[in-house]
Every structure is written in C-alpha cells, then in structure tokens.
Design brief:
Length: 584
Amino acid sequence: MAPPLVSVPMKKNKNKKPSLVLTLSAAGLLIGAGSIAYWLLSARQLSSSDLLVGANIIPGDALFAVSLTTDAQQWQELRQFGTRETQTELDKNLVELRDRFLTNNGYDFQKDIAPWVGDDITIAFLAPDTASKPAPKPVTTNGDAGSDQQSMVMVLPVKNPEIAKGILAQPKTLKQGKWIDRTYQGIAIKQNQGQAGENFSAALLDGRFLVITDSLKATERAIDAYKNKTSLATTGGFAENFQKIGNYQPFAQFYVNVPTAAEIAAASPNRPLPAQVLAQLQNNQGLAGTMTLEAEGIRFKGVSWLNPNSQRVLAVENKAGEMQSRLPAETLMMLSGGNLQRLWGDYVLTSQGNPLSPIAPEQLRGGIKSLTNLDLDKDLLSWMKGEFSLSVIPTTPKQGSPDDFRAGLVFMVEASNRQSAETSLKQLDDVMRNQYQFQVQPAKVADQPVVNWVSPYGTLTATHGWLDGDIAFLVVGAPITDKIVPKPNNTLASTIPFQQTVPTEPNPTNGQFFLDVERTVKNFPLPTLIPNQQTLLDATHSIGITSAVSDSRSNIYDIFIGLKKVTNSAALPSPESNKGNSVK
C-alpha cells in the first residue's frame, strides 16, 4: 500500500489547523529521538536537484519541512521493523492519515495520485508573519485565515503534467462550499470556499510542481518565494550544508529553522525562553537530516550549522575514536568525546540561564565545590583536554556478596597535564579521607598501582588510577577495575554489535555513542524520558552515533538504530474494510 501522505485540495478539520505538525506521525519518526541531536556525513558533492524536494518553492523562513518517499516498497519495509506493538501503532497512524487526506475526500492513492506524482513529496510549516503577536488576525472577507496563523505548504513534484492538470481542472466535488478560480502573478490558483479555517488552495507551477496549502496567503507566499528566489534553497548555508547529507533514494529528509523556532518558543506564554537564551540560539541557523532504511535498521545522517552572520566559530578538532579499544566487550554503554574542557565550554555557552538545560552550569560548579572544595574549571577541567569516555560495565556478583552494584560506572580521560591531574586526584583523596571518613588505600590490579576508596561500612566504593601513562580513570559502583586493567584482549571495538551499530564515518571523529539496548533493558531499569518509551525500547537492538566538526560553521552526525523485525507483516487495512469496522 502506498503512503497516504499526498493530497489534493480538500476540506480540513477546523479544530486541527494549529497543530497539523502533531498529526504527521510519520514525520515525527524522523526527529524523535530525537530529538534529537546527532546526524550525518556524505563525502560526495551533489547537484542542486539533490536538495530537499520543493526547496525552491518553500519560503525561506519556513519553520520546518519534511520530505517523504512515495515508494510503496519503502513504506512496506518500514512496517517490517519493530514489534507487533510498534507495527500496530504505525499502521494506526498511517491509516488515519490516508483516510483523512485521501479516502474521506474521495481519492485513492494508486488510482488518483500515483500515476502523476514524483518520487518524494514535501510538507512544510510556515512560521506566522509576526510570531510575537499574542492573537491571530481576524479571518478575512474571503474566508482565508490571517497571516499570523501557522500555515502548511505541500509540494508534490509532477512526473505526468497532463494528468496533474486534469486533477486540478476537475477536482472532486466538495461536501461543503465550492471551488473558486483565482490568479496571482500569472499563476492560476484553485481555492475552495468553505467555512473559516477549512480552506485549501492549489496551484501548478511551471507544470512541474503541484503546490497545496491550507490558506491563500500561504500559496501566495510560496509563489513569491519561487519567482523572487527567496525560497529555502537560497537561505544562508542551506544548500551547501544540505548537500552533505545526500543519499541515494532516502526514505525521508527534513529541515528545522532553529532561530525561527526559538523566536516562536520565546513568544510562548507557557514557557518563554529568556532573552539571553534566545540570543544564543540566534547563532544557529539550521538542522537537517536524511533517513534511510537498511537491512538491519534505520540510519540518520544529519548536519547542523551556524548562522552565516554569527560571530561564533567552531574549533575543527576531531581527536576521538580510541576509548572503545580500552573497554571490555561486555560494555553496555559508552559515550566518548575528543576534548572534555572544550565540550564543557560549549555547554556553558549554550545553556547559561537556559531553563531547558538538564543542569545549570553554575549549579554543577557549586555542587562540586561544596562536595570536594575543588574548582571545576581550574582544578579539574584545566587538564582534561584530551579524549574522554563515560561507560557502564556490568559485573557478575560473587555468590553470597551483597547485590548493591550490578554495574560499574567508568570515567576515562586523557590528561593534557599529568602533574596537575595527580595534584587534583591527591586533593580528592584527602577530601574522601578527612571529610567523609573513607579509607584511602593504595593497591594493585594486575601489578598496576591504583587507589581504592572504601566506605566506613567496608564497601569498596571507587577506584582510580592510570592507563597507558596519561589516561586517568575512575570506577564508581561495582568493582570492575580488573576488566580495564590491564587492557582487555576482547575489546568493545572488536565486538559484532559495536561494529554493526556504531557508524565508521565521519572519520576522524570528535565523539561516539553506543548503547546495547537489548541487554541494558533486560538487566537494568531505565528512567522514563519519552512517551511509549518501553514500546520503543522493546523494538530496538542497539543504538550507535558518530559525530565530527565538519568545518568552522557546521557539525555532522551519523546515527544508526538497529531494530527488530516483524515476520509476515499484514497489509494495511483497505479503506473499505476500515469503513466497515468504523460502522460496527
């Protein structure tokens, strides 16, 4: 069954106009994890035709755009991933979209749309002309919503102009209202005149693109963008960065206008962004990504870039990629980066005063100062300029021993100044001994010196030491130091799950992430972070991410999600059978 995400002029549900983006569940698959933040690399240079479909029509200030394939085979492949539960949820959303946009308006995709539509369609959401106004403009005399209301633009490439012209010339009879013919800048527009908030307009541009919008104003904005070359394709940094995520026959591509999204968030009465946060976000311009289906899962490639006028620049420093060779094969999770001090500096820059940040920089600094009497920046991060990693390594508790810790949390960092590092570690030893009454005991593991922190109750709480001369490590929780000292023979990097999950590009890299979802969920409870989290986790084998700084203005990311598969998946319910079920 082909995807139900293309349309012709139709009636629209009045109550759902402001939240169209929330109904596009398939598009939501692209940015969920999303949220998101790692994406892409593609080395080859692409032509302008490889940009987001309709990028030369969508107004340059568009808030969000997503392009989806019309290839029925790819949609069937997507339905095979996951579990029966996730497939049922996906099918429910697809059927809802198909019936809403096609069936309920008398259209069948295979008969009415497939003969003339191109390989991909694009749906874009335009920001209101004035995001700061608290209320929308009144409805105009022709029934069209005012320009302050969020509008949708749908771009359908035309591969058979004659059929498309016929569909536009003789649309299906409306259940309510009537069709009106208009002209704007020499372009014929077909508009339905119905109740306020239920209007659609359609125009055929140069016989190549059918543009459908939910307001006449949006149609005019799209025509202006196309003729005046003020479209998304001409927005600063869009073309050159979008080409970095090119891929052959992607399932989907998307773009987010970061500063516009920030302005809308700042104007929200429920959770407005502080002025200083808005100013920081204005340094960023866009986030774009490509989604492709592979044999064992879904791959996302993405790029984020700064505003061309921003004074901020990125340090092109990609020096990670070694920590996975220092960890044992049974490692459940690993997060690595190339320069912890620089990463912290970037975090401070973007999160200072931001209520949405997971933890305020000043709170973390204050917490470390009160607990250890150390200055985070001067005493610790000053010598942490090399590659670092944070990992979770499970252990098998010994028989008869308390099952307090089933895994150890391991922090490793390459010291840029070993003398400063040793001074800081000695200060930590003194704090644990004098302030918390821990026993600080020198010991050896595989003939290598380490220092153990033993709690007043006699439980080994932490161990720190050195690997390969300049790699400092700290183990907290389960006593798993013997798994990293000496360097393990069977490393995480050598395992099949890691190699099949963590992308090998971009290379060199400034950071990687690996999570064995299946084993982690089976052995450890996880906090709930997103809706339907358990359902999604049950469908996932593993997650791998690789990132790099592409140049002084952009970051690139590659993420792979290994997924389970549903065998013998059933076809989508036909519109007829769905009607029968609804009658019952």
